[in-house]
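Technical annex, item 7. During the second reporting period the consortium partners agreed on a shared format for inverse folding records so that results from different sites could be compared directly. Each record opens with the tokenized structure and is followed by the designed sequence. A conforming record, contributed by the partner at site C, is shown below for reference.
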């Protein structure tokens, strides 16, 4: 089992992770995880844990993990949004075919406000992109 374990482990937290070095080469033949750093994905900061000095290998592995994690999070963001589109379609079908008047009364105002807010943001962002594209063509 210990031969299959990675050399590093990252305990994910909301804004990054705690980075650990995994040690299986000890007398007790048990798994030791030594925290080596705190990683912040948002600002790219890597803080050594305690008085530890990180090696170039440590930093390379942490930076690689950060890049991979940012890709995963970006993919999840888009996937969540596309799932929301599906959910909106399912909600429209529900409202059209199965919802009772009481159920519609319960959700209509919240849905209309959320959809209005989303539409406002999307229209403004689309207009900004179109203006920027027109300026780059003209310039």
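Designed sequence (site C submission):
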């Amino acid at each position: 089992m210990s031969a299959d374990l990675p050399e590093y482990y990252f305990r994910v937290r909301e804004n990054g992770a705690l980075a650990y070095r995994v040690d299986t080469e000890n007398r007790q033949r048990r798994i030791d995880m030594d925290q080596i750093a705190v990683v912040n994905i948002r600002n790219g900061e890597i803080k050594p844990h305690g008085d530890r000095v990180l090696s170039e290998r440590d930093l390379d592995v942490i930076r690689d993990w950060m890049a991979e994690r940012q890709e995963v999070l970006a993919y999840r963001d888009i996937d969540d949004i596309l799932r929301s589109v599906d959910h909106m379609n399912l909600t429209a079908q529900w409202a059209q075919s199965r919802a009772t008047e009481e159920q519609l009364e319960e959700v209509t105002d919240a849905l209309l406000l959320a959809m209005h807010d989303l539409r406002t943001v999307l229209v403004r962002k689309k207009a900004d992109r179109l203006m920027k594209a027109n300026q780059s063509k003209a310039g």
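Residues 56-97 form the longest helix (42 residues). The two ends are 62 Å apart (CA to CA). All partners now use this format for quarterly exchanges.
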